[in-house]
Design brief:
single chain; alpha/beta; Rossmann fold; 2 domains; 6-stranded mixed β-sheet; 13 helices; 11 strands
Length: 303
């Protein structure tokens, strides 16, 4: 019966659509009430999207989230979830009877996203670019979607100021540490974060160098390459981290400077890689761990 209901929801969503249905290329002005998007039933896909909606006071409009919507914890705990953002089901999403789909750019799979963009529900894409400027732009865009523009402008200004404070603080670092982000270790071989990744961006924001800068994207790294990269510290998400001693004792790492000093930094995955309002705090925590005594000031404060 549930499958039949989901199929019916999909069929209904693909029939003749209202004017604002499908992918929204240009957001309507909040000053024109009749043109506003209907935000009464938002399906939020992407942990950072959900976090920003929460920060803008739009919690009551969220009817469902994806499994990456881990902050604040009650978002996923108290709402239906439509699955992992990269493995969505069109039927599952549309069965929530949404008035609006607010979806991070990296969601998938592509065929499902194509279906959702053709459905009779407005679909708004939110960039997942990992830069300080993109964080502010995301906040402002979501603020425009839910007509919380004043709150969004204030939050974006605060976050931008904290990025600036962080940049000033890490400018005092004379000898940048080499940090290796380890996504996972399978059969003794690490999957690491190279350039053009959120991991690379957070490492650089913390005033450090990416030890996997010879790679692009998230790629496996051989023991020889790890040894040559000579990381001073390993960085991992808490959810994917083994016990510190276990990781540093892996053959790939045990001869590195990181293993010699026992330096493994773990952090909540959404906080570390989400590039949302808390990113200055995440980068500040990393910087202060890598450089004891470094004062990141307001950058390390919860927004």
């Amino acid at each position: 019966m549930m499958a039949l209901a989901a199929g019916a929801a999909l069929a209904a969503a693909l029939v003749a659509a209202p004017a604002q249905a499908g992918e929204v290329a240009s957001l309507p002005e909040c000053s024109a009430p009749d043109a506003r998007l209907d935000t009464s039933r938002i399906v939020s896909i992407g942990g950072t999207v959900t976090e920003i909606l929460h920060d803008l006071g739009a919690d009551d409009s969220i009817v469902a989230v994806d499994t990456t919507s881990l902050y604040p914890p009650e978002m996923l705990r108290e709402r239906p979830n439509v699955g992992y953002m990269r493995a969505l089901s069109a039927e599952g999403v549309l069965s929530m009877s949404p008035s609006l789909l607010l979806v991070t750019e990296g969601a998938g799979p592509p065929n499902v996203i194509d279906v959702l963009k053709r459905a009779s529900v407005p679909y708004v894409t939110i960039s997942d670019e990992a830069t300080p400027e993109a964080v502010a732009d995301r906040i402002l865009r979501i603020g425009q979607v839910v007509c919380a523009e004043a709150a969004a402008a204030e939050l974006a200004e605060t976050v931008t100021a904290r990025f600036a404070a962080l940049e000033t603080a890490v400018a005092a670092v004379d000898e940048p540490k080499r940090v290796l982000f380890v996504m996972s270790v399978q059969n003794g071989r690490p999957m690491v974060g190279g350039t053009d990744t959120a991991a690379d961006a957070i490492i650089r924001l913390a005033g450090a160098e990416n030890a996997a800068a010879s790679l692009e994207g998230y790629k496996p790294m051989s023991d020889e390459a790890v040894l040559e990269a000579a990381p001073d510290a390993l960085l991992m998400m808490e959810s994917g981290a083994h016990r510190s001693g276990d990781v540093l004792a892996e053959p790939a790492f045990r001869l590195t400077p990181a293993a010699e000093t026992g330096t493994l930094v773990t952090m909540d995955g959404l906080l570390l890689l989400g590039f949302g309002p808390r990113t200055p705090m995440a980068a500040a925590r990393l910087a202060e761990t890598l450089y004891p005594g470094l004062d990141t000031g307001e950058a390390g404060v919860q927004p």
